Every structure is written in structure tokens, then in C-alpha cells.
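User: Some background: our group keeps a shared notebook of sequences we're curious about, and every so often someone picks one and asks for a predicted structure to add to the entry. Today it's my turn. The entry only has the sequence so far, pasted here. Could you supply the structure so I can complete it?
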Amino acid sequence: MAIREGNLEAPTRHPLDWKNPDFYNEDSLNKELERVYDICHGCRRCVSLCNAFPTLFDLVDESDTFEVDGVDKKDYVKVVDQCYLCDLCYMTKCPYTPPHEWNVDFPHLMLRAKAVKYKKGEVKTRDKILSATDTVGSLAGIPVVSTIVNTANQNGLARKALEKVLGIHPDAVLPEYHSVTGRKRVKKINKHLNNATPIGRTTGKVAIFATCYGNRNEPHLLEDLTLVLDHNDIPVTLVDKEVCCGMPKLELGDLKAVEHAKNVNIPEMLKKIDAGWDIIAPVPSCVLMFKQELPLMFPDDADVQKVKEHIFDPFEYLMLRHKEGQLNTNFKDSLGKIAYHAACHLRVQNMGLKTRELLTLIQDTSVETIERCSGHDGTYAVKEEFHDISMKICRPVISKVKKAESNYYSSDCPMAGHQIENGLKDDSKPYHPLTLLRIAYGL
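Assistant: Of course. Here's the predicted structure to add to the notebook entry:
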């Protein structure tokens, strides 16, 4: 029977068999890398997505055989280091994902290779620090320390020192740290409405998973989210306790640390879910972690699967309410034209462009959607060896924002917004969609 060319079915994901000893077997890994690299080399459809594929194709084209068998296996990791698990190749480009018999899952193969690399101790101290978001945030968020850190991040000499010591590129945008956290701000403004209107998949009550980034780096996101939900008569509270969702550790290959974070976060979320609350997180990567990555890592964990069904992106949640006639569409202000960058980790959640759908409900507002990766990834863009490449990946996004000549530019991923800002270099600032919605409501 002939092998069919390409896939007609939607891509499906297999659980990540990360507790199987063979998962960390280097010979087995290299055999699978060679198999998949050969398929990618024969297709080359993903060449424009990120730098992992150009790196692979250059290795092949510069080899003696012009095939994958001519590439030194020691160089396989060069491809792995360029992958930041955006998932776009799997969800938008690859014709050989399961159920196709070739069973190509490039991102999870890269994750396996990263896990092997981490287990072998071949990870830089810098990368461990960058992925320790809770520790860094708690230290940098101390009132006096936050001022020093934020000032140093804007100082050329300090940034040169940071480059020399840790390998942080001096031109990369580093997040600010706030001592008055998002959690503190939400507690001050939350009105604690008593009545909820359950409808469709939603209970009409929301517990916010603040995220380490939303809590420490851009606390206004939690303020905006709370005010928008409150304006829609949705009671709001916070998940009582949380640690980082685990995405930075996942991208590092530290799967044990991901499990540790899961063991803290899932029970806390379940407390709220069992009490009738839905969960919303303001950062797409964090939502994706609980919707996809943890369920695939722990397919037999009923608690993880339950959280998967009850966690939402903010605009997904609001549009579910709108479908049932429960969205407040009494907008006070138009927003004009918005250049909207659809974040990768939002696109791969397979729910459509809910942010765009909601923003276009606002009178006299148009949205120009940009569906290209910003190349940021949270840590990739700040590393000295990858920053210039990340800006190159972002160049098409920056170009489209410039051509749009919009009133606002925006991204669901706040880090992607700042990556675009870094490329524009015109003193303009990104507006998160939640901030735009708050403006439209006149809040």
C-alpha cells in the first residue's frame, strides 16, 4: 500500500512518554532525530517559521552527502537549541503530524532532546536563572531592589556587565519588576459580586491564575482583567496560591521542575473549580500549559484533565459569554484601527481568534491581524547568541505594524508586544488587548 502524501485530518497529539527510561536514551533519541530531520529536509515547508529549520537545512546542505546522513550527530543539538516550542510547525504547517503514519511531532521531539540535554547537565547557569521566574521575581520585586533592578536594566554600562556575566544581550528588552504586585492590586479593586450567571460552558465566576509575569512584571494586566470581568457582572477572585505555570522549565527540559509546579498549582486550582469557579490566566503560554502540555505529560491524572476543561483565555471566556448573550457590548469609546499580533501560544489552542472577534464588536474599530511569530519566547530573545535572530524572526511582524499605520498595536503575549516595540524604535508602546478593552469600556 502506497504511503499517502500529507494529512487531511486535524493534527492530534500523543501523550509525552517522559517517564519511560527510553525517553532519555541518547541512541534512541538520535535515531528519532535522524528520522524526523530527514522528513523535514525532504519537505522544507517550515523554513520561514523560526531558525530551527534553516539551521537544519544548512547542516544538510553543507554536508558531504547533501542528506541528513551526512550531518554529524553532535550537530543535531544545534537545531534543538533554536527551537522554543512555539508549536506553529505542528499546528499550522506540518503535513505529517499524527494521524499520518509518519507521526511527526517536531516540538515534542525537540522537548525530548532538551530533556536529555538537561539530564546530562549541559545547560548554562544563565538558562537556569532565566527559567527560575518565581525566585527572580520575588527577589527583584522587593521594593528597593525593584527600583535598582529596573534602573540597571535601562543603563548601558550595567547591561554590558550583564552581557559579560550572564550572556544577556544588551539590546534585549528586559521586563520591569513591581513591588506592588498584581495580586495586591486586584484585592484592592475587586468588588466581590455575590451573584453569578452560569451559562454555556461558563459558571460566570472567575478565579484568576495571576501568573508570575502578570503578578510581578505587568500587574496592570490583572487590574485590566478584573475591571473588565467586573464590568460584565462576573465575580472575581484569585487562586489562593500559585507558582510559575512551568512553561520556562518545560522549554529548558527540566521536566521534574514542571511536575513540581504542577503539584502545587493543580490542587489550588481544583479548590476553586470544585467551589464553582472557572479559571482564567492573562498570559497565553500559561493557559496553554494547563490546556495542553500538562495534560499530555500526565494523561492519567484526572485532576490535571479537570483543570484542562475549566481554564480559559480571557477573550475565549468573554466570547463564550457573548455567544449566550451575556457580554456587555455597551462600549463608550471606539479604538480606531488596531494592528493585532496573534500570539503563537494562543493560535495553537485551536479556539479561533477570539481577541480579534471581540475587538471588532467595538464601534468604529477595525483589526488588522498579524499571524507571524514574534520570535521572543520569554527567554530566547534576551540571550546574547539568539537575540539578533529573534529580531530577524520578528521583522515581518514589525513591518506589518509599520504599514498598518494604526492607532494601536497589540498582542495577547505582553512579551511579544515589547519585542515589536523593540523593533519599531519609535517611542510607541504596545497596548495589551485587555487594556484596549478597558479603554473601550471607559473604565
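Suggested note for the entry: Residues 125-166 form one domain. Strands lie at 206-208, 236-238, 278-280, 311-312, 336-341, 365-370, 408-411.
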